[in-house]
Each structure stands twice: as C-alpha cells, then as structure tokens.
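User: Predict structure, ligand nicotinamide-adenine-dinucleotide.
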Amino acid sequence: MLKSAILGCRGRARAHAKAYEDITRSKLTAICDMNEEHLNEFGEMFGVSQRYSDLDEMLDREKPDLLHIVTAPVLRGTRQPIRYPLLKVASDHGVPAVIIEKPIALVGEDWRQIRDLSEQTETKIAVNTQLNFHPKNLELKKDVAEGKIGDIQLIEASCRNPPVDQAPHTLQLISSYIDNSRPVKVMGQIAGSDQLESDQPSPDNAAARIHYANGVQASVAFGPEMAPRVLADTGNHRHKRVRVFGTEGFIHWRFESWEKYTPETGYQSGDLDYGEQDAVAQTGLTNAMIDWLEDDSKVHPTNLKQSLAEFNLLLGIYESGSLRRPIDLPFDPADNMMQHLKDIL
Ligand SMILES: NC(=O)c1ccc[n+]([C@@H]2O[C@H](COP(=O)([O-])OP(=O)(O)OC[C@H]3O[C@@H](n4cnc5c(N)ncnc54)[C@H](O)[C@@H]3O)[C@@H](O)[C@H]2O)c1
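Assistant: Predicted complex:
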C-alpha cells in the first residue's frame, strides 16, 4: 500500500481526501497545515491522526509516496507566490509524486522557476485539472478519437471566471481532445484591469485564436465579457465548456450538460451533475498518478511539462494582447508583465 499526504487543509482539500474512499493502492496517512484549526478539523473529518504544521517535518517523518499540494498559488493575505517554493521542498525531499492544484503559476517569474525545476526534478508532478477525467468528457473524447465526428476542424472553448483562474481548466480540456499537441502560435486580446490588483493577477478578460502543432486551431474566450453562459443566473465559475467541431459532427461538453451530433447516432443531449462527475474525476486523476508512479511509461495526462506549456500559452495571450501581434510559442515571458498590463489596461 502506498502512502499519501496532503499539504493544505482548507476547502478544496476535501475533494482530494474524499477521493481516497475509492482508491485501493494508496492510503491518506498524514496531513499538514500551519493553521492548527484547519489541520484538526480536517483530521477529524477524514480520520487522519498524523498531523503536522511543518511540511519539512511531515516529509522527513512520513516519507509519503504521493503528496497533494492543495493551496492557492499565493499564501492568502500576503501575495507571496508559493507554488515554486512548495514544489522545490517536495523535490528536495525526493517525494516520488506530487499532485498540485491549478493554476500551476501566476506570472512569468514563477512560471520560469517551475519550468527550470521541471527540467531537473526526479519528482513526478501532475496538475489538478481534473476535468480531463470527468466521465462524460472521457466518453466524448472516445467519440472524437474513434473518428465519430470525422476529422477535427476547430475547437472552441470558454469560461467566465478570470483567465488565470479557469483558463488552466479550459486550455487543458482542449489539449485533452488533441492528445496534448502543443500550442505553437497565438494571437490574443485582453481587457479589464480589476483583477490585476487581486491575489491572482490577470486581465479580467482574454480571447484568442490558437494554432497547435497538429494543425488544429482553437478559439477561446475567458472572463465575463465574451465567454457565453451555460445556465442563466448562475455564478461565473459554472460556465466552463468546450466544443469540438469535426468534418461530420460535433461534441459539446458544458459544466452541467452536454450535446453531440454524429452521423451514427444523430443529435443527442443531456444534463450532468457536475458534483458527481467531479468526484469520479478526482479519483481518476489520483489513480492516474498512481499508475505513473508504478509505471514510468504511463505518464500522467496533466503532467507538469504539459501544464507549463498550457500556462505559457495563457501568458502568450496576455503578451500578444499587450504587444498587438501574434506570438510564437513557447515564448519567454518578460518579468513584470503584470505591471506592464496595469500601465496599458
Ligand atoms: N480543481 C478545481 O476544480 C478547483 C476547485 C476549487 C479550487 N481549486 C484550487 O484550489 C486552490 C485553493 O484551495 P483552498 O482554497 O483550499 O486553499 P487556501 O490557500 O485557502 O488554503 C491553503 C491552506 O494551506 C495552508 N498552507 C499554505 N502554505 C502552507 C505551508 N507552507 N505549510 C503549511 N500549511 C500551509 C494554509 O494555512 C491554508 O489553510 C486554488 O489554487 C484554486 O484554484 C481548484
């Protein structure tokens, strides 16, 4: 039996812990949070007695096979980026595998640090973009992979939360329909500066046309101005979606519904329970990490290098919007990009 541990015991960590109810190859054996109240409440909720307030101490003593890093990308209330330092600690301790929450970075500076770490570390790292494993998405992806909508002509995807928050999910979904083909060029537009002052800085809105290495193009819209609603009168976080147009049909996955047309089945549609789908997906994402731990050839679909390419694409959209020209990808983002965006937006 493998040993898993969680760093960060606030709201989001519950979904990570709950997945262990259906996981047979690893057990949640230890948790860590510098906030004792969060630590103990979470420990009681999931029956975990090995509790730590210091990450180094937990890793030294418990030696987990799989560490979940479930924190915001900044230490709340401080704006101090913590993705890179936490991944570095895990890597320095030789933790075999890490699942870390999205977004993997915030700006060019931490993206570059994590990119450099990804070139050196022995730790297998995946980002928690679990929509990849939603059962309905897996089913629709199978249709696309089996050619049921013909050849892919165009992918169109969106989400209404600020780009840095939900574009990582949306861009990963696009990648998942094209076997993680990498983006090679983007032309983007950005608007709105309110979010630039937040803990997770980004333009309020972004839209782009993306060219992928396999020849497929995608059109994306992030933020409330241009991204369509899935359901009327629901919060901005509930509008993630992706539509894949083929030569003979299409598939369309939405936060709480789906539709498709194939010549074989005609037009079909239905509703989805996001919570149910998400719980199954969290287990699927964790099991895929255990598969990779046990077999080097089973690389996790949301692995760090892939996620960094998707985050570089997002930064490329900002860069393209600010310079008003297409950007070849991957590109080296400038330091202080957010300050530049504050100046121009
Ligand atoms: N994948 C999804 O669908 C999804 C959904 C919701 C949220 N999220 C992501 O989850 C993350 C936020 O999760 P949250 O709101 O539970 O996190 P949070 O940042 O509010 O809480 C993190 C906890 O970790 C602790 N912590 C941070 N650094 C520590 C350290 N070095 N040592 C010990 N303890 C430490 C803090 O005390 C805190 O209790 C965000 O990145 C968000 O994007 C993802």
